[in-house]
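ENTRY TYPE: paired fold submission
RECORD: A
CONTENT: sequence, then structure tokens
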Amino acid sequence: MLDTNDLPPLRYRPAAGTARTGYPGLRPASKVLKRGHVHREGVLPLQCDVLFEQDAEVQLRDGTRIYVDVFRPVEAHDCPVLIGWSPYGKQFGPLNLDTFQHPARMDVPRQLEDGLNMFEAPNPSYWVSHGYAVISPDPRGIFSSEGDIHLWGEREARDEYDLIEWAGTRAWSNGKVGLAGNSYLAMTQWFVAAQRPPHLAAIAPWEGASDLYRDSSCRGGIPETVFSPAILGTLPGERRIEDAQVMQAEHPLYDSYWRDKAAALSRIEVPAYVTASWTNLVHTAGTLRGWSQLGSTRKWLRVHNTHEWNDLYNPANVEDLRRFFDHVLKGLDNGWQATPPVRLTVLDPGHADVVYRAEDTFPLARQELLPFYLTAEGSLERATPKQEAALSYDSADATGIKFRVTFDRLTEITGHVKAKLWVEAPDHDDMDLFVTVRKLDAHGQVQSAHVVTGASHEGPNGRLRVSMRRLDPERSRPELPVHAFDTVQKLSPGETVPVEIDVWPMSMRWHAGETLELTVNGVDTLVRPELPQLPALPTLNKGAHVVHVGGRYDAHLLLPFVSPA
């Protein structure tokens, strides 16, 4: 954790405003919403009477006032409290599951939301019906809450810390606060839990990046200038917002600005229910890093095979989360302790996935790391090829170059994957590289993992700007290169350099006759199912890229093979 006095000054821009949201302004009130009430057309009727305290004022340590909605049982006291910290707006936010251009709402029926819930947050009435209080805040700068909007890091975490302590000291609270929610609401949990608020008793990060630079804003050292602005540009406020794009441009290297936006995971001591998937294009690596580096000894990981929103509102998963919170926030002896530390899903496109296989940890202790070497013929071989070759592709062509290996038996690859390449840019002094691992069936057709209706995932991927290739030797492992991102090393004419690219974690099976294919190219081909209309990620590529293989060039794909338990 960093002292905010040591951070660079923030740049701000005007926030998006609130006029388009229909926001009516502050309306402090306390009322009972009756069981069966339908808050919005088509949603789940309330499952019990809910005491709704609207726009309650909370004063933060610096005197700033924010406003929260509190949902709690009408009569009960001694309630554990759940908070979802969200900048999207607690009632009138511009984002919801209908905002995104997916006809099936990512397979989340409206009947699975109660209409009181924030975007990517739990349904308050469900939890109130089980004796919990739920708090939905408008953080600093959102709608009528005072101040400027800050994005992740220590500044925002201090505000959430203050709300946790406010909630834990209410007369109706049992003094134990849990955090819940998906995506942004998961990311902030890592940061505030590292500050150890006294009344924080549990977290449940549901797919959340833990290092903003590495996971999202500058993954592989390549600035992300498409998805994040589309989301952050919607945050509703009448004052200012931290200008993430300007800060990204002014801080291209991993400096104190970005260190502040990497959670101090080892400081987290409270019990944690961590949810991940292999198919998330923002959160997969950061969630699994969070799980691995948590300081808590009481932590559980569940890796699913669908989309984050579909998984969040699935009734079976809601019940599973309640068992966790009932155990750690209410002290119930409900058998939760017998839950396996890891419940792992193994994707098997074209066949049936293996869902929630019990494991002790991740990565798996029984993994065997094996290199497969790239050859001039486009194959992946266990033996180092003696023949040297220079293979080139047009950096503007998504086809790139491909390397394949066909398995003769059922094969599972689970864990971290690394691609080591030797590369050259004859027409430029830098390169943006993209690598993807895919599964082909016996007929050579790509087998994609089903995510939700109309959306699939072709396989794990990695990326790297070659000038940012320097590794952090203290943090890197053979299968997991960690880049320092603190030095720019441009290419000289004719220079060939080795690079190591971390391919995001995976778990997938290949059957006999099926093929693993590695693609290397200069184009980001990923399509976000929530916003398929977004343009491709811009790159700095020019002209041809050359990949050297064989002989002196030990270009390879390092794969974690797993035998049956």
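RECORD: B
CONTENT: sequence, then structure tokens
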Amino acid sequence: MAERSDRAPAQWRRPLLHWLDGVEAGWAVPLLLVGFVAVWTLYLANAYAGGGLHPDTLEAWTLGRHFAWGYHKHPPLMGWVAAVWTSVFPVSDWSLQLMAMVNAGLALFFVDQIARQFVTGHKRILVLLLLMLTPAYQFHAQRFNANAVLLATWPLATWCFLRAFGTRSAFWAVAVGCTTALAMVGKYYSVFLVASFAFAALAHPARRAYFTSASPWISVVTGFALLSPHIYWLATTGASTFTYALTHANGNAVSSLGDVRNFLLGLVAAVSVSAVTWMFIAGTRLKQFPADFAAMSPGLRLLFYVAIGTILLPVLTSLAMGTDLPSLWALQGLFLFVVLVVCGTRYPIERFYTVNATVIAAGVALAAVLVAAPIHAVYRNIHGYEEGRNFYAPAANELTRQWRELTGEPLSAVSGDDSLAFATAFYSPDHPYYARPFVYQYKWGLPRKTTLDRGWAALCFRGQDDCGRWMEWVSARAGNFVRREFTVQASLWGKPGLTREVVVLMVPPRADSGATPESAADDFSASKRSPE
């Protein structure tokens, strides 16, 4: 049936076949990616209407407001990206949702650069469609954080590594150093990608030619040179990012085995829809897999070793050190296996199947936008989110209104519950700075006297006992303060939703404090001072 359809396609298939004809002409892949970004951005705008951004995304934006070579919880790339983006686009929900999906679109673009080294035509499209049927490039990507930022950096670094290994040119060697450094300042989990490159190069039959060339050493020198500012920052600030990372290394042999099992099962679940789709495409030709694997090209063989390394090395590390190992930490590496499966087939894939996969991916996207997104938005307006995202914007606006009413000045610094503080910084028209240095993010310390003198506000949800006790502690020190409570209500397209009570503490600025937004930013950027 597939061959017959390719010879005499139905009328509705012909526009899609014409689109597939444009792959090698250079316009089909960009069109697919632009459509993907547009549709899934629309999904996010509808599904989270009235819901606010995820706290991780708000944290990335907060980090990016102050440039640094490192931050105390994560490496700096996610903050840099958010800062560059909002220097061009407005500070709004749709803007950061678009940023998240553009990141996913770039990831798929770099995957295509890898795939086109091994296949041509519609097989390149098939690789992208199968990845679009995983949750990595929509639902994982929308939560823009240190994990999501790796979606683009991993395939970019892998593409450069493949080129450097194959050509051993200085240009691609430098590119490997640059892109692996970029991945490392995205998240230290990328050390497993870098180690996988080394493992793949050592395991490949062409290892002697590669290691006796200048290429790997140029990459190493370039990578360390670009990482040196971040390494210097680590050395001079106490390496708090490592301290935070080590909080995930507190398991034992039994818990590690459970984590490894869940890690592998989670990755299998993530690719399950794509795997079933591929089984329908390959059909009885699946039995050719052993022969296809044995005949794998040198480039694909190198990619296979990289893929194995990105799974095996985290597993071994988890078992040896007792570290946590959630599967979402590895979602950015799923492309390796999809490229291997599709590009490793020696038999032709009929365009009939690529058209069908296109229809499936488009159908899922349209169902998400037209059906799932409104249902999700309505459900969340009634039942809310655990982190209280529905109330971020109304709480920020009400605090700002009450602050201005009390002081007659813009709000310059905010603290309290981290998610609410990040949200107030983002949604308040005053865009106050987050006043707690990130090194003390999880310690309920007293504000510095200078912070209180400049004017400062904090807010918590009622029922957050730790935050509430901390407010009482601060009140005893502040002297001149105003404590208030108000109720905020979620709303969706004009329909009221659930309510929640917010407790705020406001310390008006002293007349002689000389408070400025820049001084509040200095408080934010502090790293070795006392809490707040």
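NOTES ON RECORD B: Residues 454 and 519 are 8 Å apart (CA to CA). The two ends are 69 Å apart (CA to CA).
STATUS: closed
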